[in-house]
Design brief:
Number of domains: 1
CATH superfamily: Gcn5-related N-acetyltransferase (GNAT)
CATH class: Alpha Beta
Largest sheet: 8 strands, mixed
Number of helices: 5
Strand content: 25-35%
Order of helices and strands: EEHHEEHEHEHEE
CATH topology: Aminopeptidase
Structural class: alpha+beta
Distance between the termini: 32 Å
Strand order of the largest sheet: 1-2-3-4-5-6-8-7
CATH architecture: 3-Layer(aba) Sandwich
Amino acid sequence: MSDQPSTQAAGQVELKFVRGREIAGYLDAVAALRIAVFREFPYLYDGDTDYERRYLRTYVESPQSFAVLVLSKGVIVGASTCLPLAHEEAAFQRPFRELGLDPRDIFYLAESILLPPFRGRGLGTRFFHERENHARRLGEFTHTAFCAVERPADHPRRPADHRPLDGFWTRRGYRKMPRLQARFPWRDLGDSEETEKTLVFWMRPMEASHKPRAAPG
């Protein structure tokens, strides 16, 4: 892959790669996509557009951020984002600091979101591949990591056909790290107030060309 932003055909969709300040032109579209997709279980997120715009500014302000956008007929139908964990909100850095790990060693794979008609085409795998390659090119990190919300097995809104992605993540070399947990509030669908949710991190070591500042035991 080239380090330059590019657009590639992928079946009936296009993939567009943007970095840093280039992401600014897509904030509203990605915000709307996050609100739509995260309404689904397990996130059940009752989205707020103003919050989404503020949150996504983090990616514009980070020169090392990267996003994979999926477009169909010019409309963004999927997105996958990432940036150094040290550039993320303190709530995501805190569990690493509490275990003596340096957030500067971790490249954070934030979200992968895709509208239902475009799932099942291998784009989830492509999202991971492109973000991991971006982190590898930067050459400053020992691990990639992401987090996922924990919901009880008997949650009343859990669909009967819900399939966790643990197997997919494990096949990509990620390991669940139960000691690395972030707490983050949002309002569930149907609720009147925000409640804190637990998000557990998954990590994968990557090739590092520098002396690690820290590494999980």
